[in-house]
Known about the structure:
Structural class of chain A: mainly alpha
Radius of gyration of chain A: 20 Å
Largest sheet of chain B: 4 strands, parallel
Oligomer: heterodimer
Shape of chain B: globular
Largest sheet of chain A: none
Amino acid sequence: MHDVYNFVSGPLVWVSFIIFFGGCLYRLISMAVLAKKKDVFVYEYMSFKYGLRSIFHWIIPFGTVKWRKNPILTIVTFTFHICLILVPIFLCAHVILWKESWDIGWWYFSDTTADILTGIVIACCVFFLIRRIVLPEVKYLTSVSDYVILAMVAAPFITGFWTYHQWPGCKIIGIVHIVAGEIMLVAIPFTRLIHMVYFPFTRGYIGSEFGAVRNAKDW
Amino acid sequence: MAEPAMKQSDETGEIFDKGIDKGLARLTPEKIEQVINKVLSAETGARLKTYVNTCVHCGLCSEACHYYLSHDNDPKFSPAGKVKQTIWEILKKKGKVDHKFLKKAAEIAYTECNLCRRCAMYCPFGIDIAYLISIVRRICHMLGVTPLYIQDTAHSHSATLNQMWVKEDEWVDSLFWQEEEAQDEIPSLRIPVEKEGAEIFYSVIAPEPKFRAQLIYQAAVIMNVAGVDFTMPATPGWDNSDQCMFTGDYEIMGRLKKAHFETAMRLKVKRIVMGECGHAFRSVYDVGNRWLAWKMPPIPVTHAVEFYYELLKQGKIKITKKYDKPVTLQDPCNISRGRGLHEKARYVVNALCEEFIDMQPNREHNYCCCAGGGVINTGPPYKMKRIDGNRVKAEQLFAAKARGAKVVIAPCHNCHGGIEDINHHYGLDMELHFLGDIIYKIMEKPV
């Protein structure tokens, strides 16, 4: 058990972070190179000002007509994405791991806060799952991969929650938690989770087209 | 001589379209695969790849689409739903798709999407779904699987450089004819043809000389009264319209825009002013120029709405008495989402009319008329599809009517065609006008 723990919390962490950062970088660079080769005008029309203007509106809750028209989804989506990023970074147990390995540390959530935020992420995942099953327009677009991606995102939080509460089998689940986190990191560059990296570019580009060429808003 | 009535669909609702059906009959599986992959590898790149990889299948684009809303939220009509049925499948099967699939894909791309770009404003990632559907159209064009009626206009563009098979002498004759007609009203009026060095090249779409010649008359009156130094060419290149942009025939689109810009250069004008047409503006200002490698058009292009705005603002045309019927305004996609002219349009409407009642939603968020993007040009076989596909427009207009609007102003030819059909089918009983109609009616004219 210790060997497995040491492996998944040692070399595998390295591997997954390298794949995550390397993969994201690779996807970004290959997109840029391909755009230069095949869609060169994208560079011509990309506008810093209008791209940012569009991104800014879309990352503000209720900052767009779309967000305002679907208030529940907007709240869930923003809460989910914010917690998804903040919890792993500012979780006490994770900060301790950084401290032990690298002797670096930063502010962290209290355990109770982290516990609640984790619960929120899980609840949001359930919301997305139900949405996918129940709403016809989402169901129609859904394939197996969508469930797999959702499961990959939910898994680290469910297993983390389990481990923290020391429920039965928490030692094994703890290992599963680490692996699940690593799988998610590795999956980001190679699945539709890449939207995390591509968002500023797709939004920025359409914002540039709408703003700089068409003199119109895109939100 | 009347043509015998053709059966346009069978009892299952399958629509017969000679252009699509005969085109498909010529294709082998190998040819289909080869053509699709050629288009994908030669003409698509980072944008297609990034869009497909980024879409998280969330369905948030759905409520942007008038087809989706008009079909009681049927997911097959959602923007991403249409992408799923076309480009996703093409990519998944690496071009190995069959005839049945292609027929459906062509129908979706040409008759169930107006390329109105409203969905780009509802997708959080700003995925340009109109672009994705355009790729499907391009593939269909390269395969020779295009709806008959719109293909006919594309042929006309190719042979005559105008959309309506208007011959050169007919064109010049139409101008002289309208000049003569208008001289009955204003004896000094001229439509200066081929005037080198004029300030403005006034360009129209071919349906104007073909069906709506009175618009040329009205424009001539407005230009003359306002003292505008304008000209219209006697040569091909006078037509600013472009159905090839919509069939996917970008080579011809390039020829059309080149002829248009070169005509302006030859006449040494300072800018092109266009009549009240949306798709032509999109072609000249946004799409056609890009094919010719002009980031922006090589010569300034002004849409009629903006031009009227200038004339009114500068006091070049004066109003005798404001138009007294309550009006509402259709914001055409290609000049609101496509150029941000909605505020100027409101200035013009308010300057002309006593009472203006806005539609909801409006400006960039207005619903498309469902005629644009070449959809009305696919002709009678798809007419009901187009009308059923825009029930929300009827509802939107009924709501404006309930608040008192009696007249719809639609400063776009396609919007006109689309709303005219919706008006009749849903029994709206509203009047429909161009801005030019109203200006002509109420402006001060020399006695």
